[in-house]
Specification:
The structure is a single chain. This protein is α+β, with helices and mostly antiparallel strands and 203 residues long. The chain contains six helices and six strands. Strands 1, 2, 3, 4, 5 and 6 form a six-stranded mixed beta sheet that branches.
């Protein structure tokens, strides 16, 4: 695991320090890491969001108002982050990958203009990419701990059903309704993924 501690404030004009690295290191090792270790020794371990809330509270007690956010990285692809001022909510982030082909082309532009704008991406038969999608979901954290927050497997299921199965190993222009008349630029792909995921994550 990795624990990222972010502090904000005004640096001391003489030393240039906001806070020394040793202060952050000691706060993490003496106060935060024991909470994480204890949670995983317990066979009835709490949801990681509850553990992170405890970590944020103890760090806030030790670091004061300079503490901004704490991010707990479980893997290079999955992490939880929480603001010190809002321990009733956790941001759950997971990366996903899918492979797809596309062609960038605007029908209202002539062939030379399309080639100049899009280069190799204007290849008439399309070309492929491996796309990496990071989905971040704001999840409520029940202060009484009676209602567990969303679990990672639920997030993965929604993204798999809504995005991966829809776009993976497809020619976006030819095989998907979303890009039948919408140029599948990276920006448009991000917008479409966001729109498709909104409804499933509101339930």
């Amino acid at each position: 695991y990795e624990l990222d501690i972010t502090c904000v404030g005004t640096a001391d004009p003489r030393t240039g320090y906001l806070v020394s690295i040793s202060t952050l290191d000691n706060a993490a090792r003496e106060h935060a890491l024991p909470i994480i270790a204890a949670a995983f020794r317990d066979s009835q371990s709490s949801h990681p969001a509850f553990v992170l809330a405890d970590v944020v509270r103890v760090l806030h007690h030790n670091l004061g108002s300079m503490l901004s956010t704490v991010c707990w990285r479980f893997t290079p692809y999955y992490h939880l982050s929480m603001h010190a001022a809002a321990t009733d909510q956790v941001l759950m982030s997971q990366q996903f990958e899918f492979s797809a082909a596309h062609r960038l082309h605007c029908d209202d532009l002539d062939a030379d203009t399309n080639r100049r704008l899009f280069g190799k991406c204007n290849n008439p038969n399309g070309h492929g990419h491996n796309y990496r999608l990071e989905v971040a979901v704001a999840v409520p954290v029940d202060a009484d701990r009676r209602t567990p927050p969303m679990r990672l497997d639920a997030l993965e299921h929604i993204v798999d059903q809504t995005i991966i199965k829809r776009f993976d190993h497809k020619h976006l222009n030819l095989d998907t309704a979303e890009f039948a008349s919408l140029n599948p630029s990276l920006e448009h792909i991000a917008q479409v993924c966001y729109s498709l995921l909104q409804a499933p994550f509101q339930h």
